[in-house]
Design brief:
Structural class: alpha/beta
Strand content: 15-25%
Order of helices and strands: EEHEHEHEHEHEHEHHHEHHHEEEE
CATH topology: TIM Barrel
Radius of gyration: 19 Å
Helix content: 25-40%
Largest sheet: 8 strands, parallel
Bound molecules: N-carbamoyl-L-aspartate, zinc ion
Amino acid sequence: MTTRITIRRPDDWHLHLRDGAMMRSVLPETARHFARAIVMPNLVPPVVTAEDALAYRDRIEAALPDGADFTPLMTLYLTERTEPDDVQAAHADGLITAVKLYPAGATTNSQSGVTDLKSVYPVLERMAEIGLPLCIHGEVTTHDVDIFDREQVFIDTVLDPLLRDIPELKVTLEHITTSHGVDYVREAAGDIAGTITTHHLMINRNHMLVGGIRPHYYCLPIVKRAEHQQALRRAATSGHPRFFLGTDSAPHLDAAKETACGCAGVFSAPNTMSCLAHVFEEEGALDRLEAFTSLNGPARYGLAPNTATLTLEKRDAPAIYKAKYDTPDGPLTLFDPGHALHWHVVD
Ligand code: NCD
Ligand code: ZN
């Protein structure tokens, strides 16, 4: 039985670092295990221009603990006023790694997102020309579509037509949550990849709703049926180059989660690697953990994999993670996988 594995240092291809005090609380947790992360731009107000991204990157770098080996990969929040030239210049300067499409109203802080996709075609066509990836929150927001169907309807009615209209566009369909998403990413003719979160591999909607409602499992896209969780597990552990890790670690204070109308988001950065080793071991695929966390993502983004390594060891005693993190504005709850985690990050 394998009880120790060493992999190249992982990267997180979808992360929310927030800003200010919250950023200072959560950034060290990601920097401890991850070498790079694609940083989501859904601040209030959002990171829209190259100038915004530069200033945000400076704030992140200033908040890094001494000696941390972590590079934030910046993104721009696509709006109907985004200028193709601004995007191209930010890409040429090496400032941004991707542009993020939020359908307006799809999730936390997406009010400034896109309502009419055609209105951003000039930006998307420019991105296709220069090879800049588009990261997509793939859910429709029309009120007549059931929340559990929003991903599938998005793929069929928005994403597939988009990839036909602009076939050279490099797309990352983020945080896929359904077997439909898995099948689409694997089979589509377009230049597409998909990220999968830690929590969607570990929980399904029963965990969130049976025996009481668990607000800390509420996230978007919402967790689906167990059969979808199984499809995600098969995809993540398959080694297929189109699938890789985007934790979507998305901290919200307990006061914002444990309330009559709670925010969407799961904070998983600290224990993600222990969780993933657990999942990959359960699936008999520990030898493919590195592909998912450390190889497929860089290959997709045209970057070299990290040369530093991370070692995990399985021990009889469970790994201890704090249930709650203290921030200056109040407590923040860590993702609870619902059982002990025996894989420790040791190095
Ligand atoms: C994210 C957040 O809180 O910013 N929430 C979430 O449930 N995933 C936004 C997002 O990625 O959808
Ligand atoms: Zn997210």
